[in-house]
Task: structure prediction
Amino acid sequence: MHTFQPYPADMLELNPFTKIGKEWMLITAGNKEKANTMTASWGGLGVIWGKNVAYVFVRDSRYTKEFMDANDTFSLTFFEGQHPALKYLGTVSGRDEDKIAGARFNVNYSDNTPFIDEGNLVFVCKKLSATRMTADQFIDPKLADAFYKDGDMHTMYVGEITQILAR
Result:
């Protein structure tokens, strides 16, 4: 396992449009008994309710959603550039196989919150809210038509960033 050190939030310099939208991240949830991860390119960082937060979107059909709903914390793992294994982790279900092992990754923990050890930057988040999106919430109906024709909606999770770890 790699050694991670706490990293102060006020020293963080990253472009969320690149880090999330182009390089992608892994959302990991679970506990020391069982965890799952998924690749994500939707989400953001900001401040709400007086807290530094990350917000991520997980579809109803994703196995990771079960872990997100069952646990109070989750993590976001970032890599330098787009790691080839992220594509694999975004297309294979953890229901069908141990996809973390299949990607040749390992799970590490901050307290009981799992994260992917091969990353270089990790946000440990405490879940603050979970809001399921519905088609009637869209002001622009073209979005619902373009992204949710099959009805597989997202839940938006907002998590307080309680710890940033870097290696």
About this structure: The longest strand covers residues 154-166. Residues 134 and 153 are 7 Å apart (CA to CA). The helical segments are 16-19, 63-70, 84-91, 99-102, 141-147. The chain has one domain: 5-166.
